[in-house]
Amino acid sequence: MSEVGALRDPSFLRSVRPLLETYASWFRPDVNGLDRLPDRGPFLVVGNHSGGQMSPDLPVLLTAWWRERGEEEPVYALVHSLFMGIPGVGSTLARGGGLVAEAEASEAILAQGGIVIVYPGGDHDVYRPWGERNTIDFDGRMGWVRLALRQQVPVAPVVSIGGQETLVVLTRGEGLARRLGLDRMFRVKVLPLIMGPPFGVVPGGIPTFPLPSKITVEVLDPFDWTDRHGPDAAEDPEVLAACYEEVTTAMQAKLDELAAARRFPVIG
After folding, report:
1. Which residues, at least 6 apart from 178, have a Cβ–Cβ distance to it below 8 Å?
2. Closest among 230, 91, 205, 218 to 163, alpha carbons compared
3. Which pick of 102, 104, 214, 236 has the fewest CB atoms within 10 Å?
4. What backbone torsions phi and psi does residue 134 show, to the nearest 5 degrees?
């Protein structure tokens, strides 16, 4: 890899994998459909984001991925710039394949034949209120569609359930975040109120101990638009909207199916 993504270190991943496996095991993970992924990059992985600031969805997905496909595969994940900018934290995430969530970095990795995991809904998605926990909500963000079209790569959707039951989100607090100017200062659009052990009801910036909710992950068949659209389609609003709707509709259908099979929250 070139300078972008060069800090990713497979030996580091092997050293921390037992710790991540232990963390993931708390959620009794069930990851299915990894065989549907393309044999190699470049491709984009798009998932729904759940679990607040201690979101377990990426460790659950990646530990299963590494068991099946190995740590050497050039897999990268987009991370909010707020976390990547924290001294010590950002460099550690970069060694694990973390990238600042910017189009330029994603394009560079895909151009090199790598794989990029993105959770388009970001903070809006990860703090879905309890009543919306089984809803695919990317907040209309289509940067990932534009990226896939511009780079002419497939999109592999990944749907998970259970992560949003590791805590209870009472409200996103978007209005308060807007009034405080958090978006302008930190690119943060929410100031949620959550409930979870050991402190009860707290602001979203205070970590809670995650409930042992069973997490099930399903990889769907990839979408490949290259036979219908060239790179120029990335600038066509109608194409972007149609591709966005195509993927999110398929993801919601799978999430509905997983939710119907889930008899009780947390227990699964």
Report:
1. 189
2. 218
3. 104
4. -105, 40
In 3D, which of 34, 30, 261, 248 has the Cα closest to residue 141? Answer: 248
Residue 234: HSE in the Cβ half-sphere, 13 Å Cα cutoff: 16
3-state secondary structure (DSSP) of residue 195: strand
Q: How far apart are CA 213 and CA 242, in angstroms?
A: 34
For 75-116, how does the pLDDT look when each residue is reduced to its tens digit (9 = 90+)? 999 987 777 777 888 889 999 999 988 889 999 999 999 999
Query: Where do we find the tokens 């990932």?
Result: 144
What whole-number distance in Å separates Cα of residue 79 and Cα of residue 98?
A: 6
Q: Does any domain span residue 191?
A: yes
Count the domains in the chain: 1
Tokens standing for residue 155: 């999109």
User: Does residue 5 fall inside a structural domain?
Assistant: no
Q: Does residue 197 lie in a domain region?
A: yes
Residue type, 15: S
Q: Which domain holds residue 39?
A: 10-259
Q: Pseudo-torsion of CA 125, 127, 132, 135, nearest 10°?
A: 20
251 occurs within a structural domain: yes
Give the Å distances, CA to CA, from 228 to 41, 55, 225: 20, 35, 5
Provide CB contacts within 8 A for 230, sequence distance 6+: 152
For residue range 156-210, what is the model confidence (pLDDT) as tens digits? 999 999 999 999 999 988 777 687 777 777 677 878 999 999 999 998 878 899 9
Three-state DSSP class for residue 114? coil
CA distance 221 to 242: 18
